[in-house]
Amino acid sequence: MHRWIVPYLMGELKACLRKPLRDRLHVMFCVADHFEPYTRGASPEQAEKRLKRWTSNLPALAEGIVGSDGKPYRHTFFYPREQYSRTMLNRLSDTCRTGLAEVEIHLHHDNAASEEFRADMLHFKRFLRQGHGLLSADKNTGEVKYAFIHGNWALDNSRPDGRYCGVNNELIILKETGCYADFTLPSAPSATQTAKINSIYYAKDNPRRPRSHNTGIDVRTGAGPCGDLLLIQGPLTLDWRARKNGVLPGIENAEIGGGRPPTIRRFDLWKRQHISVAGRPEWVFIKVHCHGALEKNADMFFRGQMRLFLQHLVEHAGRSGFSLHFVTAREMYNIVKAAEAGENGDPGAYRDYVLA
Question: Domains of the chain (ranges plus CATH)?
Answer without folding.
Answer: 5-17+24-344 (3.20.20)
